[in-house]
Design brief:
seven-stranded mixed beta sheet; Thioredoxin-like_sf; globular; oxidoreductase activity; isomerase
């Protein structure tokens, strides 16, 4: 199965960061009041649940792992997310490797060794109903000791899965943290609500037309009228916390310059703004990457109607000169040549 993401601390993401939604459309929705109570929702998984305060309090030690492959119809697991506890010692090892191991293959091999020691606590797994194995085979796919079927909806089967309590190899302080997190499992299970999973493609194209009134990092007002001067505009949603977002930005800077003759524009939307510190970080990232295209500070409208519709960052999509969303929604990073190919395919749709 294809791993979609790792989250090891808020400092670095390996593939891309899954974003809990706070509303998007009229289906799965987490209100502001619910968010303040600890609710999380993932539209692409069709799940909504409530977590205790300790999960946020000890956020740096929470390890997230994506499950399944929504694009491979032969995979039994369509989607899912696993929550685990990663000790401070393992985090230190990870950061040491990130800083001192130059060879990428060796670095990721050693990352895997660290990740194998994470104490997985619970996961929510969405199976394809027509591919789900026999009940006694479920644990082989989830790697969890306890697997409870919660619901069946629209061709998907939802399981809540968790492991036995295991605080071995943790110091006394971490044992208390781990126990507090583990003790919240049953509350999370009880709060779980399920919906039909909706892909970012389905969620964003349901918006049809993108409208906004935002400010760029220099304080200039920018609205959707910016689209009218271009045949096609690529919207790249990224975050200052996201390693893959930052790694692809030099390519996007070159792509922007090379696609001018095609009358194609690029606009960035910074997902973790408005926030003064993050805006300053964004300015530094943009400067270091050589980016010349416009980058916008998000607002509540964009968060609700766009950012909360996607599975993670970076995500890119396209609009025509009228702001109509066209073509494929791209989740995750791509090379410059891959983006060029997607742009070429999308331009053909406009003719």
């Amino acid at each position: 199965m294809k791993k979609k993401l790792f989250r090891i601390t808020s400092l670095l993401l390996i593939v891309f960061m899954v974003l809990p939604l706070g509303g998007c459309g009229k289906k799965l929705e987490v209100t502001d009041e619910e968010k303040s109570q600890g609710y999380k929702g993932y539209r692409d998984m069709g799940i909504k649940f409530k977590m205790g305060e300790d999960w946020k309090k000890y956020d740096d030690n929470i390890f997230l792992d994506g499950l399944g492959d929504s694009e491979d119809e032969n995979e039994p697991i369509y989607n899912g997310i696993s929550y685990g506890y990663i000790s401070n010692d393992l985090i230190e090892q990870y950061l040491d490797i990130a800083e001192n191991v130059a060879d990428e293959q060796e670095r990721f091999k050693r990352y895997d060794e660290i990740f194998s020691q994470v104490k997985n606590i619970f996961s929510i797994v969405v199976f394809r109903e027509n591919k789900i194995p026999a009940e006694d085979k479920i644990s082989e796919l989830t790697n969890m000791s306890h697997n409870e079927k919660m619901n069946k909806k629209s061709g998907y089967v939802f399981y809540f899965c968790y492991n036995d309590f295991d605080d071995s190899e943790l110091d006394e302080e971490e044992k208390n943290i781990y126990k507090n997190l583990y003790d919240d499992i049953q509350n999370i299970k009880t709060s779980l609500e399920t919906y039909k999973p909706e892909t970012p493609q389905e969620a964003l194209t349901s918006i049809k037309k993108l409208e906004f009134n935002l400010k760029d990092l220099d304080g200039n007002e920018v609205n959707n009228e910016i689209f009218k001067d271009y045949n096609l505009t690529m919207i790249n949603i990224w975050g200052t916390f996201c390693g893959p977002c930052k790694r692809e930005m030099p390519d996007l800077a070159e792509l922007y310059e090379e696609m001018k003759d095609e009358n194609v524009n690029i606009i960035g939307i910074i997902s973790d703004t408005p926030n003064e510190d993050n805006e300053n970080a964004a300015r530094e990232i943009i400067k270091e990457s050589g980016v010349k295209y416009t980058n916008l500070i998000s607002d509540e409208n964009i968060k609700k109607n766009v950012i909360n519709c996607i599975a993670g960052v970076p995500t890119s999509f396209f609009v025509d000169s009228q702001g109509n969303i066209v073509g494929e929604v791209i989740t995750g990073s791509m090379s410059k040549d891959e983006y060029k190919e997607k742009i070429s395919e999308t331009l053909k749709l406009l003719k």
